[in-house]
Amino acid sequence: MNLGMVRLTREQQAFAAQAREFFATHVTTEVLEHERRTGDGFNEGVHLALGRRGWIMPAWPAEHGGAGLDAVQVRVLELEASRARMPFVTLGTTRMVARAVERHASDEIRPGLLREVAAGTVRFCLGYSEPEGGSDIAAARVRAVRDGGDWVINGAKIFTTGAHNCQYTFLITRTDPDLPKHQGLTMFLVPLSEPGVQIQPIRTFGGERTNVVYFGDVRVPDALRLGGVNDGWSVLRGPLDSEHGMGDDAGARKLADLSMGKGYLHELGRALHVAVEWAVTPRADGTRPADDPYVRYRLGKIEIDIQAALCTPGPMGRVKASDALVHGAAALMDLLGPEAVVSEGAEGAAGGGRIEFAHRFAQGTATYGGTVEVFRAIIAQHVLGLPRPSYPGSKMLVSAAQRKR
Description:
Elements: H1 10-26, H2 29-38, H3 44-53, H4 71-83, H5 89-104, H6 110-119, E1 124-127, E2 143-147, E3 150-158, E4 168-174, E5 185-191, E6 197-203, E7 209-221, E8 225-226, H7 232-243, H8 262-279, H9 293-310, H10 314-336, H11 338-341, H12 354-364, H13 372-383, H14 400-404
Parallel strand pairs: 1-4
Antiparallel strand pairs: 2-3, 3-7, 4-5, 5-8, 6-7
Helix pairs in contact: 1-4, 5-6, 5-7, 8-9, 8-10, 8-12, 9-10, 10-12, 10-13
């Protein structure tokens, strides 16, 4: 593995400057304040501006709405977006689903949808989790029943982040309850503007907005089915594996971050920076917190945890980053005391409230994109080659024929 620095050509340096200027222009203080207040993970003005530059799907050729960027330029664009703290969640889910649309959508809908994705006028969210389903996506109960040329969908999805900013949800449904649970599933792109769709917000402890989406007799044309009937699990696996740091393209991009959890570590790094500034600031008696070796030890340990998590690859990095943020943010609050508890925007907040925000944000990182328990199971089975665990009392879906035996 080559961990050396990539030396940018003059053309690539010029592109980096161009990207930096773009994000400085569009990711304004108003955009960041809106994100702080709403937790949307999305800003329409920024998203459409990206679309006008071909930067929503930047590696796509210009004739398909992209910018035809090479791998280095795509990486530069990602880094500049991250430095500007551009709201990213809906862009990320849209890109994941776009890959499934490329592979599995019918010729009738694929070209038009992908053009609108590249322009920014069509966005996708993930319709996976259900109120009683936990992390077992394959246990989906949302029903899709064939009715002529349409499907009628009933049920509810939860934690559908970005649904209020998207045109379609990438929905996993159960189309044959008599088949084993992984075999009776079908994927659809469901328009969120259809009659019978209701979106209700959920506010998380970390300040993000997610949603419950209800489907009541929602009619979806068969043209919006992705892949074969009852073959939804194979359609879902591409985006799901990408979200879990696995699949055919996992590790294929040599310029990608080694750790899946780098975004979590950014928040911890910002909070740590506030704590270091506090530690080196003289108090009224002329002493500094950093004069205490125990303070230096605790700050140093957090930095070591950040660097260790940054160097941890794949799904292991996802778990390590969440653990580092959860424990590190709590340690910083303990170290700084009351001023670290004051929330963002309030008078007396340490570093403008970055530590308090990092602590709140940390709590959700144990569940984003699948719980850390799911990722630990992935590590055990797919990285370490351990057998699938069998827990007493675990539930199984069996067919009607099996139940009659």
